Amino acid sequence: MGARNNKSSMNFKTMAQLDVPQGRNGKHKQIVTSILADLDKLQDGAALKVPLADLAESKEKVRSALNRAIHKTRRNVATASDENFLYVWNENK
């Protein structure tokens, strides 16, 4: 099976690699980016209070996306929630 058979038709369309989007811009990117930026400015002992009514997606989906971003950037962050807010704060190491 060494060489490719160029005579068979392709199953998928092709494009230049340079045009392939690099990086993942999920639907939670804006809220997660905003939370992470605010965490950088947050004073010790304070927590962000994010209104759940302002979220475009469910609390669970946003919390999951935030968790992925936290682990990717190796932050030490905690979250909690109630029926109205998602609370996020920097944990002391």
What can you tell me about this protein's structure?
With 93 residues, this protein is α+β, with helices and mostly antiparallel strands. The chain has a domain at 28-90. Helix content is 29%, strand content 16%. The protein has helices at 29-41, 59-72; strands at residues 48-51, 77-81, 85-90. Strand 2 (77-81) and strand 3 form a beta hairpin. The chain starts with 28 loop residues before the first helix and ends with a strand. The mean pLDDT is 85.
List the topology elements.
Blueprint: H1 29-41, E1 48-51, H2 59-72, E2 77-81, E3 85-90
Antiparallel strand pairs: 1-3, 2-3
Summary of the model, kept short:
This protein is α+β, with helices and mostly antiparallel strands. 29% of the residues lie in helices and 16% in strands. Helix 1 (29-41) crosses helix 2.
Globular, elongated, flat, extended or rod-shaped: what is the shape? elongated
**Computed CA radius of gyration, to the nearest angstrom:** 20 Å
Mind summarizing the main beta sheet? 3 strands, antiparallel
Rounded to the nearest angstrom, the distance between the terminal CA atoms is 55 Å
The number of distinct β-strands equals 3
Q: Name the beta content range.
A: 15-25%
Low-pLDDT runs: none
Mean pLDDT: 85
Structural class: alpha+beta
Written as H for each helix and E for each strand, in order along the chain, the element string is HEHEE
Number of helices: 2
Binned, the helix content reads 25-40%
Read across the widest sheet, the strand sequence of neighbours is: 1-3-2
Write out key terms for the chains shown.
alpha+beta; 29% helix; single chain
